Amino acid sequence: MRRAVFCPLLLVIVAVLSGEGCSYSSLYVSPADGRARTVWRENNVVVDLSSGLASDVCLYQVGAATHTSRFYLMDERLELAPVSSPYPVAMLDDFWIPVFYGSPILASRAVIERPAVVFAPPRGRTVAPPPSRSNVASESKHGDSESRAFTAAAIAALVILPIVDLVLAINRPESSTRSAQAIDQVHAYNDFARTRGSPCSPAL
Amino acid sequence: MFAGIVTRTIGTSALAGLVFLHGCANTISQYQPRRVAQGELILQYDGAFAMYAGGKRVARGLTYKGLSPFVVCVPTAHEQARLAERDGRVAVGFSATGGSLGAVSLGLLAGAIADGDNRWAWLGSGLVTATIGVLFAGFGRKFRNSANGHAVDALNFYNDSVGSLGARCNDLTYPAPAGPTTPVIAPVPSSVPQS
Description:
Distance between the termini of chain B: 62 Å
Shape of chain B: elongated
Largest sheet of chain B: 3 strands, antiparallel
Distance between the termini of chain A: 78 Å
Strand order of the largest sheet of chain A: 1-2
Number of helices of chain A: 5
Strand content of chain B: 5-15%
Oligomer: heterodimer
Radius of gyration of chain A: 24 Å
Strand order of the largest sheet of chain B: 1-2-3
Structural class of chain B: mainly alpha
Order of helices and strands of chain A: HEEHEEEHEHH
Order of helices and strands of chain B: HEEEHHH
Helix content of chain A: 25-40%
Shape of chain A: elongated
Largest interface: A-B, 111 and 106 residues
Number of strands of chain A: 6
Helix content of chain B: 55-70%
Largest sheet of chain A: 2 strands, antiparallel
């Protein structure tokens, strides 16, 4: 009787906890316009340079401006050595006037489809190979139970489940460090790309 | 024996839970963008995703209230924003319910400790309640992910069509392009700077 109750409960819990990893699949695909973005991939935001392919010099400057050395890009993770002196980006008194290339944008067309514009021409990039990823493995054990051990297991489950409950309810699913770093890197990259003469801006 | 098992399990589980929660410390985004187009939506992170435009906060997770009217002129962005708002409300409801059921099951555990004659009735009720709570909390976490993903998509769709191009939904006036096509530039040498 007890096993008939306990085993389905365990199966439900395992199903929920394994299914909890089911991620939202974003349909967004960034255009190749040279403007960096944060895009949603596998429950986190990552940096998408959108074909604004950046040189090592540019990425080092972005890392210096954001005090980060790890880049979570769309298809790779980069680890760069930090530099001490970031390229200065002056604060504007007013909003930045976008510099883009393409056809003039008419309002009626813009609200229906994404206008085909490019913010910066693509450039070649050579980057150091990404560091090897480390995988974290986890193990779990189940043991057979006699009546006494079964009782102990039920008690333990009733203690652990509420804590699991509260952790799932309170804890954020996204990585706050990765999210904050990716957001900072995108902002810094765009600032550099929009500053004439910076390492990330096209040499026009 | 019973009290000893409960005490040790509570202590170990609480410690593990605190470590898990503390390990996910609240890192906030710190870089303030300086070259921002008028109407461009800026994403920040301060324990939750937040969106700003013109120096003012437009919306914040989980519910992202205010995002859909801001991006209303871009249908794809508007749809994503509505989904973000919906999933955010669902996530809040599920997480709150899951957490509450978890607290109730702890109360049932106390009943099992106090009422030894009907211990299995208390334990059984507590296990069912806690399991349902885990289900709710798990789905709350899933909808939280979905809300954040939809919100980021809404931001990107909106910026692609309006925000990063210097316009706003209530003022669809775009600057003139700098040219019809991208200019040709020389490749930049990828020399590594000495730190």
